[in-house]
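Input set for joint prediction.
Command: fold jointly, output tokens.
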Amino acid sequence: MSTAIHTVTDASFEAEVLQQAGIVLVDFWAPWCGPCKALSPLLDELAGDFAGQARIAKVNADDNKAASERLSVRGLPTLILFQDGVEKERVLGLISKSRLSTLLDKYVEA
Amino acid sequence: MTSPMTTPTSDGTASAATALPDAADAVPSGWLQAALDTITARLGPERALSERRAVLAALPAGVDAEPLGSALILRLLDEVVAVRAPEGELADALATIRELHRRCLAGEELPAIAWKAPRRQAVAATDARVPAPAEGSRLPPDDARLRGVGLTIEAAAWDPRRSASAVSEVLRQWLALEGLKADAEFGWTNEDDARIRRLLAEMHARYLADKPEEKRTVFEFLEIDHDEAATRLRAYIKHGNQHGVVCCERACALLRRLLAEAD
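tokens >
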């Protein structure tokens, strides 16, 4: 995992996502989830591409059920984009790097 | 950067792979590693290892594989647009993306910003022509093909020298388009898909909901209650897996040829 990716837990979710200013893209994943594995290198690259503009965070949904339930995560991977702690976008399932990049651009450039 | 690790040999025919103690031990970096992971994922461990060896052995000694990601993307784009030629804005985006890859192949350094406009154009044009299906539903076959072509063009809008996932993303979309061909060959329709989803949901509601002690799966209950549907589903999955293996082998062969032709 890229060092630019923030690993978030139930304990740190409030501070690292909901109280975080700016853009945070949170990936809810699990080790057994194949599409989550395919998504991982794309997020690593995006964390580098958007360094200083958006934070990319990952939550292991198996180990952090409180955060998953709080956000009503019903399938994996689920990506939720927060702006100043408010959910703005939600994507369920594997998505291409081009689409994620376009989604992030929409908020970063706004 | 992929730097072929070579040592001179007496006959001058050493390849990047033969110069190593074992080609399978070579760990290519960047796009080639990601591409190999994608196209060998369905092959099983032994076959995957032999394909990786063959691909790495195909790279001539001293040749830098890094720019060749664009060559593979261009070949895949040619194949994909032969399925369904894009029109309008998507065709314009495709033309720009192809030109950018040709410049990469020629060794030109391109700023990341050069890819952004055609990438956005391709994403917008794909959605305008064929919006994404609702969750849990499938597009009509022709729309699915057209959207698949658009998704492949979008995925190609990155410099593989800077974005290691670019080639594997294009391969993933290409494999998805090939999956549509497999569905058509088998005769699997959207009605089949909807029926199976409905039956599996019924099995879950009837036998598994609120029964955490139950160890059997929805598929096992489908076998019991709807044998004919379960048999057709098994045959469909088997056909799809076999088709996927053939596609991965074809992608490996294409990659081998491409690397072997490099100079």
